[in-house]
Amino acid sequence: MQERRQQLIVNSRFQHQFILKTVMLSFIFVNSILIVHFLLSLTNTPKVYYNLIIGITVAFIEGIALLLIFYLSRKASLRIAGPIYRFEQVLKALNEGDLTTRAILRKNDSFTESAQTLNESIETLRRRIESIQDSAAILRNQITDDTEASQSADSLCRQLSVFKVRKDDLKDAP
C-alpha cells in the first residue's frame, strides 16, 4: 500500500481553519514573549542599538518559526482531514449498497482505531446481508407456484440485490 498521500488538501475548509488557528496561537504566544522581553529590556538596558539588533533577530527567528509551524500544522491537519475524507468515501459507498468497501488509512493517520471498528462493522453487516441473500434465494427457488409468497420472495430478492457483498457482484439489480 502506498504510504504517501497524493492530495495534500482533502478538506480545504477544515485544514485551512486548523492551520490558521495553529499559526495564530503560535504568533500570539511568541509575540507575548517578545513584548514582555522588550518591556523588560527598556528598563534594564539603555543601549538602543542592542535592543534593535535583538528585536530584528527575534523577528527573524519568529518568521522561521511561523513557517515551521505552518508546515507542521498542515501536516497535522492532513493526518486528521485525510481519514475524515476516507470515512466520507466509505459512507458514500455504503449508501450505494457496497459492503465490500473498507476504510484503509495510513499507519500514522488519526482515527486508525475508528477505521478498524468501522471495517469490522461493515464486515459483520456484509456477512449478515450475504446470509439473508442466500436464504432469500433458496426460499425463492423452493416456491414454485405463482402465489403471494412467490411474489414476496421475488420482492425480497430484488431488495437485497442492491447490496454488493462480494467483489464480483454487480451493483445493478437483475
Provide a descriptive summary of the structure in words.
Helix 3 packs antiparallel against helix 4. The chain starts with 11 loop residues before the first helix and ends in a 14-residue tail after the last helix. It is mainly α.
Which key phrases capture this entry?
174 residues, mainly alpha, 72% helix, rod-shaped, disordered C terminus
Please outline what is shown here.
By secondary structure, the chain is an all-alpha fold. The protein has helices at residues 12-44, 48-95, 112-142, 148-160.
Instruction: Output the number of helix runs.
Output: 4
Mean pLDDT: 79
Could you estimate the helical fraction of the residues in percent? over 70%
**Main sheet characteristics:** none
In sequence order, what are the helices and strands, one letter per element? HHHH
Q: List the uncertain runs.
A: 170-174
| Residue fraction in strands | under 5%
The structure class reads mainly alpha
**Can you count the beta strands?**
0
| Global shape | rod-shaped
Separation, N- and C-terminal Cα atoms:
35 Å
Cα-based radius of gyration, to the nearest Å? 29 Å
List the helices and strands and how they pair.
Layout: H1 12-44, H2 48-95, H3 112-142, H4 148-160
Helix pairs in contact: 1-2, 3-4
